[in-house]
Automatic annotation (TrEMBL), chain A:
Belongs to the binding-protein-dependent transport system permease family. CysTW subfamily. InterPro entries: MetI-like, MetI-like_sf. GO terms for biological process: transmembrane transport. It is found in: Cell membrane. Residues 84-301 form the ABC transmembrane type-1 domain. The chain crosses the membrane at residues 24-50, 83-108, 120-140, 152-173, 185-204, 280-300. Pfam families: BPD_transp_1. PANTHER family: INNER MEMBRANE ABC TRANSPORTER PERMEASE PROTEIN YDCU-RELATED, INNER MEMBRANE ABC TRANSPORTER PERMEASE PROTEIN YDCU-RELATED-RELATED. It comes from Rhizobium straminoryzae. Keywords: Cell membrane, Membrane, Transmembrane, Transmembrane helix, Transport. This is ABC transporter permease. GO terms for cellular component: plasma membrane. Its main location: membrane.
TrEMBL record, chain B:
GO terms for cellular component: ATP-binding cassette (ABC) transporter complex. InterPro entries: AAA+_ATPase, ABC_SmlMolc_Importer, ABC_transporter-like_ATP-bd, ABC_transporter-like_CS, Mo/tungstate-bd_C_term_dom, P-loop_NTPase, Transp-assoc_OB_typ2. It comes from Rhizobium straminoryzae. Pfam families: ABC_tran, TOBE_2. Residues 5-235 form the ABC transporter domain. This is ABC transporter ATP-binding protein. GO terms for molecular function: ATP binding; ATP hydrolysis activity; transmembrane transporter activity. The lineage of its organism: Bacteria, Pseudomonadati, Pseudomonadota, Alphaproteobacteria, Hyphomicrobiales. The keyword RNA-binding does not apply. Keywords: ATP-binding, Nucleotide-binding, Transport. GO terms for biological process: putrescine transport. Belongs to the ABC transporter superfamily.
Length: 310, 332
């Protein structure tokens, strides 16, 4: 009897070929996503970048297809710089607040929650992600409105004066929480919090309890243990989470559109320039800003050793 | 002289589980002390009570005469070598070793020097700049040891220190640990489930069973005079003689234990005699292990390898000295 069976079916010959040449298989598997990423995504990104180097003719309102830095110069006008500063400050504040709120939650989940409580934790963190973004934001608009539950509760607790005092401050204040920068901040923190909790929890999950005990054993009280062991080991998680909260805040145009003052954020500026204003080059230049900031941010995080413990 | 560590009726209950149950313990300063027992016997919980990672639900713990009940781990003059070594992955070896001094506020130059000395002590000089991931298991173990010793603890706790090492390395480390303890004069307290490790390293051994110390003494006492069936069986291997068999041999109706290496082939003068059937004979290199059925009991004898033995299935006579028979305290 022959070991080699003749007249193999095509499918069998194909699997044989792929088995002998694993590189071919990898190529076949990667080709579709590479095409997608390479052409559609990078391609459109490139064309966006290109657009930002064109400018608009003030008189005709037409895009002049000549490479120029005029649009970027326009970006540096005080009113536009204002938008950038406002957005970056908001993104930074939202990131810091999210990290501070997320850490204890993530720590509890990683260290103490077991079985049913762990399931409850995941459900609690993920549930808000399942419901519509817009529904949540409008819900917050009600919550933060003048007649909303926050004002009502503050009044009941006798803290109405405090709330009114805060709202009378410049920059952070406004007529009510729902039309103040404070409101925008609160909603941003709420919306992006899960993206901070989950990476921190994943990082802390990988820290064995014995490391904490070893630190205590070597004479470090809880504060020192947090500074020297827990925080450095959680840093990759915090960095990952902050990439989410920071970049999502930088690019969002819906939250500040619904909750907050009439002052613009980058996302809104992009939306406006490419829509009503019809200034595609400026819109493109605006959208390059978050990319540059994120690149800078990642580079800094790397420099500071945020990814050393990975 | 005060004890390095003393327990007075110390208990640690987890709900209805009595992990440690009214344990009394006195470990003199400078002793190499082993806590031996199967998993779940309470030995590790005892160690964690000494380190301060657990708080007792009852009783009092003193370290060098000072009450340590309720004292957090960072305020105890004890240091621990963890079973998984627990080295900090984000620090170099030198920073790991210097950690205890760093949190105590010792200046950089001094703690560097001390850490290098400690690495020297465990024969790892020159490894300071490496990361924990670049070391083998045995080297990590040494770093963990150096990291604890650099703090000059009055008591060093070791949790299954050799558990993760392979046999050769384990034997080498056993000798080294013993030498280190002698040279430093620090009290070493270690937890192990390996009776060979406990017997070979420790000055004194406490055998744990179900949250209690069932026997404590020198390795010789524990080995030659186990007081209960549990200890006789757990430490080394023993033939456990039921009361009926002991009664026929000695007239005393008690449980007894008999080490297999104390049995001899044939009939001895002044010896006690067992007659039975040879069931199995296995060659184990240094000796030959016989399984012999005596009445309804299966007994084992380890004979020198050169001794000629009858074939399996034939009748066999074994004898032993009266003093080899160790009477146990278990109720008949």
């Amino acid at each position: 009897m022959s070991l080699v069976v003749g007249a193999e079916p095509l499918s069998s010959r194909l699997s044989g070929l792929l088995w002998r040449r694993p590189n071919l298989l990898i190529l076949l598997l990667l080709l579709p996503p590479l095409l997608w990423l390479g052409l559609i995504y990078v391609g459109s990104l490139f064309s966006l970048l290109l657009q930002s180097f064109f400018s608009i003719d003030d008189f005709t309102g037409q895009v002049t297809h000549e490479v120029t830095l005029l649009t970027y110069a326009e970006l540096l006008r005080p009113s536009n710089l204002d938008i950038i500063t406002r957005t970056v400050t908001m993104a930074a504040l939202v990131t810091v607040a999210s990290a501070i709120i997320a850490f204890p939650v993530a720590y509890y989940a990683a260290r103490y929650a077991k079985g049913r409580w762990k399931a409850f934790f995941y459900l609690g963190v993920m549930l808000p992600l399942w419901s519509s973004y817009l529904v949540k934001i409008y819900a917050w608009k009600m919550i933060l409105s003048k007649e909303g539950i926050v004002s009502w509760l503050a009044a009941k607790l006798g803290l109405g004066v405090l709330l009114d005092g805060w709202l009378s401050l410049p920059v952070v204040g406004g007529n009510s929480l729902s039309v103040s920068a404070t409101g925008t901040f609160l909603v941003f923190v709420y919306i992006w919090l899960p993206y901070m909790i989950l990476p921190i929890q994943a990082a802390l999950e990988r820290v064995p309890a014995s490391l904490i005990e070893a630190s205590h054993d070597l004479g470090a009280a809880p504060g020192a243990t947090f500074r020297h062991v827990l925080l450095p080991l959680a840093l990759p998680g915090i960095a990952a989470g902050s990439i989410f909260t920071f970049s999502l805040t930088l690019g969002d145009y819906i939250v500040p559109g619904i909750i907050g003052t009439s002052r613009l954020f980058i996302g809104q500026a992009v939306y406006m320039q490419q829509g009503t204003a019809g200034n595609i080059p400026l819109a493109a230049a605006f959208s390059v800003v978050p990319m540059l900031i994120m690149a800078l941010y990642l580079w800094l995080a790397r420099k500071m050793g945020a990814f050393d413990a990975l | 002289m005060t004890s390095a560590v003393s327990f007075r009726a110390v208990s640690r209950h987890f709900g209805s589980v009595r992990a440690v149950d009214a344990v009394d313990l006195d470990i003199p300063a400078g002793e190499f002390f082993a806590m031996l027992g199967p998993s779940g016997s309470g030995k590790t919980t005892c160690l964690r009570l000494m380190a301060g990672f657990e708080q007792p639900t009852g009783g009092a713990i003193a370290i060098h005469g000072r009450d340590a009940t309720g004292l957090p781990p960072w305020r105890r003059a004890v240091n621990t070598v963890f079973q998984d070594y627990a080295l900090f992955p984000h620090m170099t070896i030198l920073d790991n070793v210097a950690y205890g001094l760093m949190v105590k506020g010792v200046d950089r130059a001094t703690r560097r020097r001390a850490a290098e000395e400690a690495l020297d002590l465990v024969k790892l000089s020159g490894y300071g700049a490496r990361r924990t991931g670049q070391l083998s298991g045995g080297q990590r173990q040494r770093v963990a040891l150096a990291r604890a010793l650099v703090n000059k603890p009055s008591v060093l706790l070791l949790d299954e220190p050799l558990g993760a090492l392979d046999l050769k390395l384990r034997e080498a480390m056993q000798e080294e640990l013993k030498g280190l303890q002698k040279a430093l004069g620090i009290t070493f307290i270690f937890v192990t489930h390996d009776q060979v490790e406990a017997l070979s390293m420790a000055d004194r051994v406490a055998v744990f069973h179900q949250g209690r110390i069932v026997q404590a003494g020198t390795p010789e006492e524990i080995y030659h005079n186990p007081r209960s069936r549990f200890v006789a069986d757990f430490v080394g291997s023993s033939n456990i003689m039921p009361p009926a068999l002991t009664a026929r041999l000695t007239g005393e109706r008690r449980w007894a234990s008999l080490r297999p290496e104390l049995l001899r082939l044939g009939r001895w003068e002044d010896g006690l005699v067992l007659e039975g059937t040879l069931v199995q004979s296995s060659f184990l290199g240094a000796f030959r292990r016989l399984a012999v059925r005596v009445e309804s009991e299966m007994l084992h004898a380890n004979l020198p390898a050169g001794v000629g033995v009858p074939g399996e299935g034939s009748a066999i006579t074994l004898s032993f000295d009266r003093s080899a028979l160790n009477l146990l305290d278990d109720a008949p």
